[in-house]
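Quick one, C-alpha cells below. Sequence please?
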C-alpha cells in the first residue's frame, strides 16, 4: 500500500473525535432502550461494531487529512458515506424502539436525539470540506461564494433531518407504516448522496474552481429537497393533521424555490450573453488579421527585379 502524503493532524483528530463521539451517544441510546439480559448483548454488539468502525476510520481519516490542502475530496466522500451509512442504521433501531414503546413519552431524550443529529451531521460536513484550508483558492470573492454555497448545503441537511425527526418525536397519532418507512429511507438516501455531490463538484473542478459552474447540487436539491419536502410537510399537515410540521422550514422551501429558479434563469442568460460576445470578438479579430498579410505579388516583383541586370552583364 502506498504511504499517504503528510497529513493535517488537527483535522484528522477533529473529524475522528466528532465521528466517534456521535457514535458513542447513539450507542448510549441503544443500550438504554433495552433492559435486562438483552441490555448486555446490545452493549457487546455496539462495542464490537465501534471497534471495527474505528479500524476502518483509522485509515480513511488519514487519507482525508492528507487531501485537505489539495483540490481532491475523494476520501472525504468515502468517509461521509461510511459515517452516514452506519449512523443512520443506529438511528433506525432507536426510532423503532421508540415506536414499539409509545407509552414512553420522554420528550427530552427525543428532542436531545434531534439536537445531536442536527449538530454532528452538518459540522462533520463543514470539517470535511475545510474551506479555510483551501489555499489554492486565492481569490477572496471565490472563497466567499463557495462558503455561501456550502451554507445552503448545511441548511438542506437540517431540512432533511427535521423531516426525519418527525418520526421519533412525541406524536398523538402516528403516520401509516408505509409512509413512515418511505419517509425515513428517502431522508436516508438524501443524507448519503447529496453531500457527496457537493464534495464531488469541488473535487472535479480542481484548482481552477469556478463557482458559477457548480450547478449540479443546486438542481438536485431544488427537486429532491425543496419541492419534495414541501409536499411531504404539506401532506402531513393536510391529511394527518400533524402539528409538528415546521412552518418556518416550509417557508424556507418556498423561498429557496423562488431564489434558485431566479438564479438558474440569470445563469442561463449570462451564458447566452457570454457566447454572443465571444462570437463577436472572434469576427472582429479575424478581419484585421487577414489584412496584415503582405500580398504575394509584391514578393514576386522584388525577387525578379535584379534579373535584367544580370542578363545585360552576360551579353557584354
Amino acid at each position: 500500500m502506498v504511504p499517504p502524503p503528510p497529513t493535517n493532524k488537527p483535522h484528522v483528530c477533529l473529524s475522528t473525535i466528532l465521528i466517534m463521539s456521535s457514535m458513542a451517544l447513539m450507542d448510549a441510546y441503544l443500550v438504554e432502550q433495552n433492559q435486562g439480559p438483552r441490555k448486555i448483548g446490545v452493549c457487546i454488539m455496539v462495542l464490537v461494531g465501534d471497534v471495527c468502525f474505528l479500524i476502518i476510520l483509522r485509515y480513511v481519516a488519514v487519507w482525508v487529512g492528507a487531501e485537505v490542502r489539495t483540490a481532491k475530496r475523494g476520501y472525504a466522500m468515502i468517509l461521509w458515506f461510511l459515517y452516514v451509512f452506519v449512523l443512520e442504521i443506529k438511528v433506525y433501531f432507536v426510532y423503532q424502539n421508540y415506536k414499539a414503546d409509545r407509552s414512553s413519552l420522554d420528550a427530552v431524550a427525543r428532542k436531545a436525539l434531534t439536537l445531536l443529529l442536527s449538530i454532528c451531521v452538518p459540522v462533520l460536513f463543514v470539517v470535511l470540506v475545510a474551506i479555510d484550508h483551501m489555499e489554492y483558492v486565492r481569490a477572496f470573492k471565490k472563497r466567499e461564494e463557495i462558503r455561501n454555497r456550502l451554507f445552503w448545503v448545511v441548511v438542506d441537511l437540517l431540512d432533511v433531518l427535521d423531516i426525519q425527526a418527525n418520526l421519533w418525536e412525541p406524536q398523538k397519532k402516528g403516520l401509516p407504516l408505509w409512509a413512515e418507512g418511505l419517509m425515513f429511507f428517502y431522508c436516508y438516501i438524501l443524507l448519503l448522496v447529496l453531500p457527496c455531490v457537493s464534495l464531488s463538484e469541488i473535487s472535479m473542478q480542481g484548482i481552477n474552481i469556478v463557482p458559477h459552474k457548480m450547478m449540479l447540487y443546486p438542481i438536485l436539491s431544488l427537486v429532491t429537497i425543496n419541492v419534495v419536502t414541501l409536499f411531504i410537510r404539506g401532506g402531513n399537515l393536510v391529511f394527518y393533521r400533524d402539528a409538528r410540521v415546521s412552518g418556518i422550514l416550509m417557508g424556507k422551501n418556498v423561498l429557496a424555490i423562488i431564489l434558485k429558479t431566479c438564479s438558474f434563469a440569470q445563469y442561463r442568460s449570462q451564458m447566452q450573453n457570454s457566447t454572443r460576445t465571444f462570437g463577436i470578438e472572434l469576427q472582429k479579430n479575424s478581419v484585421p488579421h487577414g489584412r496584415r498579410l503582405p500580398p504575394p505579388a509584391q514578393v514576386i516583383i522584388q525577387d525578379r527585379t535584379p534579373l535584367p541586370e544580370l542578363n545585360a552583364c552576360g551579353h557584354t
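The chain has one domain: 9-277. The radius of gyration is 31 Å.
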